[in-house]
Design brief:
6 strands, about 55% helix, mainly alpha, about 600 residues, flat, two-stranded antiparallel ribbon, about 5% strand
């Protein structure tokens, strides 16, 4: 009960701090709120640079912040937005495990579909039905469970790889903007079932995320992952599927209330026949399935196709309002005034939806640096984990704690948003459970329990473990998989065309053999380097707080940390304590990471 109460109190603390600004800041710069005029060079400070790097990226070390602070505001913002000019040599390409074998084009929707396809065509997934003998369909079903589970493992590897990109990149806004569009154009691999399509979509966000919105919308509308996710293959002439048409209007562009049900139906007709070639992972139009009759959409009538629908959407002022508002809430704050968003929407539309230009206006505005905008957004799990690694200056993403498992536990699983609306964000990130897990993340990072660590790769259930043990002991498939001692069950199992439980065990085992394993190394963090040159407990605490926090601690909390470190130093200087101070310094960092203030960006 005490633990629950403390967690609830901490949640209230996060909410209260997010709602209030520092008194000193409010007194000095409250008048900046709502002011889109650019911040001047004389107003530009280290703290402003730190805020910019945290919001337009995932923050960084004091050296990273100092580099921006030494620039003019215009140059600092350009450094982040014009990322093509910045070398990015540390990034590695995704290292594919090679899970798709010859003939494996797409993962069937179910085991039953795989069996139907094999019976119809004589094979599926590149595997033929056995011409005779027992269980003629067993190899087919084995292959289905293999590729299903191999793709699950590979999408986890893709999540870790993207996390590594976010940590190591010299172009943080490119990744931050890709993360925004990933949540906006939410697409989940549970349905797509092909990590390659998800990687291709991420590459689209990297390439077109800051460019003209028209190009990005066209890319999304023809993206194989999106086409699969929103059932484009079922959208055919005479029987349109409205899923994509509805979402592009409601969630992607116009927003609720700015279109009619008739507009959805007509837009769906315009997108009929749009599909993809699973062999090449490329967009194709099936002309035989495209509706060429006139459509009436948003008051316009013509023989529209999907590209025309996108162009008509962009003519609507509601599109600019909806997207400018969403970008503002993501990068600035939840409570932006209508006048500010209206002004940004006008600029966005008049610039032909130049996203880079809109972000430049936002990041240079005094409103962006107003007290109401600083330290008032609750960090997403990805922002928190990536930001922690960047602030601590890690050169590699550790395997312990596992990036994918950690962010999933905190409520954000990359490539698997909860639904087509994406993650709710904001206060939804903080619950009693996730707040405790946020604190545990810091503990696992700084004090990894390597003895208790278990690889995140295995997908086994207890049932499959038992099947594997029986197979290893020499049992025949029926004996290894049948439950109970019933002779009737054994006879039925021996007459079957395939054994599902054996196929599941076989597929899991093969997937884990083929897919490259997750890392299992701990973070290489030199805590003494974080406080190099400092002498007193106050200097150390203040330096770590400046490195890690965008909101100052309450004085009582700050003094408690100073007192803790004083006790650990026991009267010695930091130089004299180097042989025993590593663990207390790690604990001090953990304490700062566990504060309500650290949950805020």
């Amino acid at each position: 009960m005490t633990r629950i109460f403390l967690a609830f109190a901490a949640i209230l603390g996060v909410m209260a701090i997010a709602a209030a600004g520092s008194a000193g800041e409010r007194t000095a710069m409250t008048h900046w709120e709502g002011d889109l005029a650019p911040i001047t060079a004389s107003e530009w400070t280290y703290e402003h640079a730190a805020h910019l790097l945290e919001r337009a990226g995932f923050s960084g070390t004091p050296e990273d912040v100092a580099r921006l602070a030494a620039m003019s505001p215009e140059d600092a913002v350009s450094f982040l937005i014009d990322w093509e000019r910045v070398p990015n040599d540390r990034l590695r390409n995704f290292d594919h495990s090679g899970i798709f074998r010859t003939g494996m084009i797409e993962v069937p929707r179910s085991r039953a579909q795989a069996v139907r396809d094999a019976r119809r065509d004589g094979e599926t997934l590149g595997v033929k039905i056995k011409p005779g003998g027992s269980r003629p369909l067993q190899p087919v079903v084995n292959a289905f469970f293999y590729i299903l589970n191999a793709d699950r493992l590979e999408i986890r590897r893709l999540s870790r790889w993207w996390g590594e990109r976010m940590v190591l990149t010299e172009r943080p806004l490119q990744e931050k903007l890709a993360l925004f569009w990933h949540g906006h154009f939410a697409t989940g691999n549970v349905k797509v079932r092909d990590y390659r399509k998800m990687l291709q979509q991420l590459e689209l966000f990297h390439a077109k995320g800051k460019g003209p919105l028209r190009d990005l919308l066209r890319g999304v509308a023809t993206d194989p992952a999106m086409l699969v996710y929103l059932d484009a293959g079922q959208n055919v002439r005479g029987n349109p599927n409205e899923n994509f048409a509805r979402e592009i209007l409601e969630l992607f562009t116009l927003g609720p209330g700015n279109y009619t049900e008739s507009d959805i139906r007509e837009a769906a007709r315009a997108f009929t026949g749009w599909t993809h070639d699973p062999r090449t992972l490329s967009f194709v139009v099936n002309a035989d399935q495209h509706d060429t009759d006139p459509k009436t959409f948003l008051g316009h009538t013509g023989n529209f196709d999907g590209y025309d629908i996108i162009d008509l959407i962009l003519q609507e002022p509601a599109t600019a309002r909806f997207l400018a508002g969403k970008l503002y809430r993501y990068f600035v704050r939840d409570g932006g005034g209508e006048a500010v968003i209206a002004a940004l929407a006008d600029e966005y539309r008049e610039s032909d939806y130049d996203t880079a230009g809109l972000l430049r206006t936002i990041f240079l505005s005094r409103d962006f640096y107003a007290p109401a905008s600083v330290g008032t957004l609750i960090k997403s799990p990805v922002q928190m984990v990536v930001g922690t690694y960047r602030k601590l200056g890690l050169a590699e993403v550790p395997g312990v704690p596992d990036f994918h498992v950690t962010t999933e536990r905190l409520g954000q699983r990359l490539f698997e948003p909860p639904n087509v609306a994406g993650w709710a964000g904001g206060r939804a990130w903080i619950t009693s459970a996730t707040l405790l897990d946020r604190g545990n993340f810091g503990r696992q990072l700084l004090f990894p329990d390597m003895f208790a660590f278990r690889s995140p790769d295995p997908l086994y259930s207890d049932t499959l473990v038992k099947v594997g043990a029986k197979i290893a002991a020499g049992a025949e498939i029926t004996q290894a998989t049948v439950q109970g001692e019933s002779m009737a069950m054994e006879m039925a199992a021996s007459d079957e065309a395939y054994n599902t439980r054996y196929a599941s065990w076989h597929g899991h085992s093969e997937a884990m053999r083929v897919v490259k394993p997750a890392k299992d190394d701990a973070a290489q963090l030199d805590v003494l380097a974080l406080v190099d040159g400092l002498e007193t407990s106050e200097e150390i605490v203040d330096s770590l707080c400046q490195r890690l926090l965008r909101r100052p601690l309450a004085e009582a909390d700050r003094l408690a940390l100073v007192e803790f470190l004083d006790d650990e130093l026991a009267g010695a200087s930091l130089a004299e304590a180097t042989s025993w101070i590593h663990e207390p310094l790690r604990l001090l960092v953990h304490l700062v990471l566990s504060t309500p203030e650290y949950q805020l960006s």
